[in-house]
Amino acid sequence: MSTLTHFDAQGQAHMVDVASKAATHRVAVAAGRIEMRPDTLALITGGSAKKGDVLGIARVAGIMAAKKTSELIPLCHPLALTRVAIEFEVIQADSTRASAVFCAVTAETVGPTGVEMEALTALQVVLLTIYDMCKAVDRGMVITGCQLLEKHGGKSGHFVAGG
Question: What's the whole-model pTM score?
Answer without folding.
Answer: 0.91
